């Protein structure tokens, strides 16, 4: 806007300077026309001076010229400043005409000067027809406009700097409360704060208040869900135990055996769905963050002790800054199932690596990638599709219920993560777990 305004003002000022310059030239032109139309007592029509010394200085840039047009050979009289040169004439299309009949415009003068010229044709009847012209050095117009442009540019530069400072001040301090809210939300997500703290201006106070209310409502919903899950677990545990005990009292009875079988299925199903509800409620809690390295270090030590008799070596590589956005027991359950499964099938070695990555180059969001490799027999692509299904076991000789990998898949999905199976570089199965980071 300042640049456009500067260009418009500069153009308007130049036009005003040209009009003032033309008025000055027209004064000289009218004086010269009057002298030509009314000769003096000696009959002289062409004055030597118009009251301006510059017309007397050779090549001063200020010239006048009178040309008689009604003779076979044009008679030219000019100021002393023009020396032995002549002024060019306008054709009808190259100049603008004033209401008084004068034409004005820019022409090339002696010594390559740019002149502002005004000319007028006068007809004196029997006394002749004359073309009267007065020219002035256009450098005065350029100098005047250039000086104005410098002053205008300096003024607008100062105004522009002031605008930038004011805008910077407004953005930095006027939007500071929103920046504090953003920082507070980041602290809540990272687990270092539980709510937005501090006082806020009235314009954003309602936003901060409603955000805190939403966080509190979320916690209340999670608490109620946990309570209901616990109540339901206790309510179902007693009837199922009674049914199981009654059926076990008559082991030879076919009906009792069937009841015991179905009761066991019911207990597994209830446990499964109550666990899913518990996990879903736990995942919904905002701001829970777990350090990854302490969890995986403890699991590695435990697995080495459990499988010590088979000589299984578990190699760990986990950075200090790896943090999982979720609860510790869920992370332990997921990684524990993967490492335990790898140790069961490994010949001698299990490798556990943890990576902290950004899914996008300029994104602030992080993910934690946990890779578990073993040197066991591995799985074919068809077998990898089957092991993720609940209760599906490829080898009944190995201990377990077949629920481990399915639990990992469900937990990872609840957190917005994923589990993929592939071939490990060391020859066995690779399990790659991707979870949200903090």
Can you give the helix content as a percent range? 40-55%
CATH homologous superfamily designation of the largest domain: Histidine kinase-like ATPase, C-terminal domain
Strand content: 15-25%
The largest sheet, given as strand count, sense and whether it forms a barrel, is: 6 strands, antiparallel
How many structural domains in the coordinates? 3
Report the count of strand segments: 13
**H-E string:** HEEEEEEHHHHEHEEHEEHHEE
**CATH fold annotation of the largest domain:** Heat Shock Protein 90
Radius of gyration: 49 Å
How would you describe this structure to a colleague?
The protein is an alpha+beta fold and 438 residues long. It folds into three domains: 2-145, Beta-Lactamase; 202-283; 290-436, Histidine kinase-like ATPase, C-terminal domain (Heat Shock Protein 90, 2-Layer Sandwich), CATH 3.30.565.10. It is 49% helix and 18% strand. It has nine helices and 13 strands. Strands 2-1-6-5-4-3 form a six-stranded antiparallel β-sheet. It has a five-stranded mixed β-sheet with strand order 8-10-11-13-12, with helices on one face. The two termini are 45 Å apart.
């Amino acid at each position: 806007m300042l640049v456009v305004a500067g260009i418009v003002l500069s153009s308007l000022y130049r036009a005003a300077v040209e009009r003032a310059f033309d008025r000055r030239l027209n004064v000289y032109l009218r004086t010269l026309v009057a002298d030509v139309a009314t000769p003096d007592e000696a009959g002289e029509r062409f004055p030597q001076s118009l009251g301006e010394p510059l017309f007397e200085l050779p090549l001063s840039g200020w010239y006048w010229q009178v040309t008689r047009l009604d003779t076979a050979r044009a008679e030219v009289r000019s100021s002393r400043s023009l020396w032995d040169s002549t002024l060019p004439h306008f054709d009808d299309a190259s100049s603008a005409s004033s209401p008084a009949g004068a034409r004005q415009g820019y022409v090339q003068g002696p010594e390559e000067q740019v002149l502002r010229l005004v000319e007028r044709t006068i007809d004196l009847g029997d006394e002749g027809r004359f073309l009267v012209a007065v020219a002035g050095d256009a450098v005065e117009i350029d100098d005047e406009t250039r000086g104005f442009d410098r002053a205008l540019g300096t003024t607008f530069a100062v105004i522009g700097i002031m605008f930038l400072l004011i805008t910077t001040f407004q953005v930095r301090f006027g939007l500071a409360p929103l920046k504090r809210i953003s920082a507070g939300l980041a602290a809540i997500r990272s687990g270092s704060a539980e709510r937005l703290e501090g006082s806020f201006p009235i314009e954003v106070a309602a936003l901060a208040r409603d955000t805190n209310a939403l966080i509190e409502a979320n916690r209340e919903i999670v608490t109620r869900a946990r309570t209901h899950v616990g109540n339901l677990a206790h309510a179902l545990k007693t009837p199922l135990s009674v049914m199981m005990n009654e059926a076990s009292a008559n082991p030879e009875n076919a009906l009792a055996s069937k009841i015991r079988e179905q009761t066991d299925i019911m207990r597994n199903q209830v446990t499964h769905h109550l666990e899913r509800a518990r996990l879903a409620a736990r995942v919904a809690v905002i701001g829970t963050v777990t350090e990854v390295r302490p969890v995986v270090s403890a699991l590695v030590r435990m697995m080495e002790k459990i499988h010590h008799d088979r000589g299984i070596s578990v190699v760990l590589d986990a950075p200090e800054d790896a943090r999982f956005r979720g609860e510790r027991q869920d992370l332990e359950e997921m990684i524990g199932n993967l490492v335990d499964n790898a140790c069961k099938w490994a010949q001698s070695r299990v490798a556990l690596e943890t990576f902290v990555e950004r899914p996008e180059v300029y994104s602030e969001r992080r993910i934690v990638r946990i890779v578990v490799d073993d040197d066991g027999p591995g799985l074919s692509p068809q077998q990898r599709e089957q092991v993720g299904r609940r209760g599906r076991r490829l080898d009944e000789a190995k201990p377990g219920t077949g629920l481990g990998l399915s639990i990992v898949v469900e937990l990872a999905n609840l957190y917005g993560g994923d589990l993929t199976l592939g071939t490990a570089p060391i020859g066995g199965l690779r399990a790659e777990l991707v979870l949200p980071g903090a």
